[in-house]
Design a protein that fits this description.
This protein is an alpha+beta fold and about 140 residues long. The protein has one domain (about 1-140). About 35% of the residues lie in helices and about 20% in strands. The chain has four helices and nine strands. The chain has helices at about 20-35, 65-80, 115-135, 140; strands at about 1-5, 10, 45, 50-55, 60, 80-85, 90-95, 100-105, 110. A four-stranded antiparallel beta sheet has the order 1-2-4-3, covered by helices on one side. Strand 7 (about 90-95) and strand 8 form a beta hairpin. The longest helix has 17 residues, at about 20-35. The two termini are about 15 Å apart.
Length: about 140
Amino acid sequence: MLRTGNGHIRKTFTGPKREIRFWNEVRILRYLNDKGCPFVPKLICIDTPSFTIIVSYAGEPIQSISEEKLNLIFSNLEEFGVRHQDQAARNILYNHRAGEFSVIDFEFAELITSCDSYCEITHRLEELDELLSCAVPPAAGC
């Protein structure tokens, strides 16, 4: 992950099954952003040709966290209908200015509640819109 000039974070997916992991992270972040989850980054832009997402700044890596606090953070995430599947301290950031924890890295996460058909259609239309709008080079469009 790299910080962009405007403070956002750029994450490019590489390695095995990068396309699947990329689309899963996009899907989960969109879902959580739509649900108003306050402790995940906001998805700013996607660039499908490079499998890159840009998200809002969410904090810095934590130095240590109790097992109890870690479990509480991930159980709060499940209240929004998402199971992280990689519940480790490396996936928690802390924003010192805001005094808040954030959860990151949703490439292996799963929805544990079902979307109604309207939600599914909305997400599919948004994905199509993103595909079309990010067809321009990332510097110009994203």
